């Protein structure tokens, strides 16, 4: 099983989204914990072709946990996409859950048992009830984890859309239901200390670690290394 469990709030990991095998290698060499295959040209849940994901998984070679976006469709389309991504050998598969009913969620999770992560969007709801209900639904359906991302990629970061209290409640609800938790959405290096302190299992990045802070540009290994260092510094401070 991949080396990430929803049991250690003092140890968030760094997830870096990549679009090609060479970017995966850049992230890996800089110390990223999770390599996430995603097409930045197609928004928060832009899926890459399965053959590209397979090549990224091969490049990583088991040296980090891998994940891939299956897309944001519904019904039979998303179930087929999950099956295709599962066949690439990726560790985890991310799908949107906002429009899915409970039966659809269960069917999606069954296509890759213990490997499906539900993605929720900060723009869609920020109440404690929303966090509690979402975590309960995903756990009941058999999901491995849940994450909050931003639907829009206009540079408005997650902390501008949800308060620390709301994000902490989401993380706590996920942990209570045995789900991994992740936070992402136009994050930058400056967001790491505060978000790490909330205890998610991972923080997700793309644009903040690319050249010029542009998610459509190439991944910058030096920025990834700075993020790794910031995560580790935050962990030591939290532990102290």
What do you see in this structure?
This protein has nine helices and eight strands. It has an eight-stranded parallel β-barrel with strand order 1-2-3-4-5-6-7-8, surrounded by six helices. Strand 2, helix 2 and strand 3 form a beta-alpha-beta unit. Helix 1 runs parallel beside helix 2 and helix 1 runs parallel beside helix 9.
Helix content: 40-55%
Strand content bin: 15-25%
What is Rg? 16 Å
Mean pLDDT: 90
Q: In sequence order, what are the helices and strands, one letter per element?
A: EHEHEHEHEHEHHEHEH
- Count of alpha and pi helical runs: 9
Number of strands: 8
Physical arrangement of strands within the biggest beta sheet: 1-2-3-4-5-6-7-8
The span between the termini is: 30 Å
Structural classification: alpha/beta
Describe, in short, the structure shown.
The chain is of the alpha/beta class and 240 residues long. It contains 9 helices and 8 strands.
Write the topology of this structure:
Layout: E1 13-18, H1 21-30, E2 34-37, H2 50-60, E3 65-71, H3 75-86, E4 92-96, H4 102-110, E5 116-121, H5 128-141, E6 145-149, H6 158-161, H7 164-176, E7 180-184, H8 192-196, E8 202-205, H9 221-239
Parallel strand pairs: 1-2, 1-8, 2-3, 3-4, 4-5, 5-6, 6-7, 7-8
What brief labels describe this structure?
240 residues; alpha/beta; 9 helices; 18% strand
């Amino acid at each position: 099983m991949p080396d990430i469990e929803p049991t250690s709030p003092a140890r968030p990991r760094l997830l870096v989204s990549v679009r090609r095998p060479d970017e995966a290698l850049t992230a890996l060499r800089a110390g990223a914990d999770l390599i996430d295959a995603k097409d930045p040209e197609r928004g928060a849940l832009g899926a890459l072709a399965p053959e590209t994901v397979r090549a990224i998984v091969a490049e990583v070679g088991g040296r980090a946990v891998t994940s891939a976006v299956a897309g944001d469709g519904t019904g039979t389309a998303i179930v087929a996409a999950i099956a295709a991504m599962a066949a690439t050998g990726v560790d985890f598969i991310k799908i949107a859950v906002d429009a899915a009913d409970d039966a659809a969620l269960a069917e999606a999770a069954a296509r890759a048992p213990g490997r499906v992560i539900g993605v929720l969007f900060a723009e869609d709801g920020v109440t404690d009830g929303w966090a509690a209900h979402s975590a309960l639904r995903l756990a009941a359906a058999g999901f491995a984890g849940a994450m909050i991302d931003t639907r829009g990629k206009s540079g408005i970061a997650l902390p501008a859309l949800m308060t620390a209290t709301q994000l902490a409640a989401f993380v706590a609800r996920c942990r209570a239901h045995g789900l991994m938790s992740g936070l992402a959405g136009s994050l930058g290096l400056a967001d790491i200390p505060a978000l790490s302190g909330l205890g998610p299992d991972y923080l997700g990045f793309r644009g903040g670690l690319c050249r010029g802070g542009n998610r459509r540009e190439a991944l910058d290994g030096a920025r990834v290394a700075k993020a790794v260092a910031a995560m580790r510094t935050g962990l030591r401070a939290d532990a102290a």
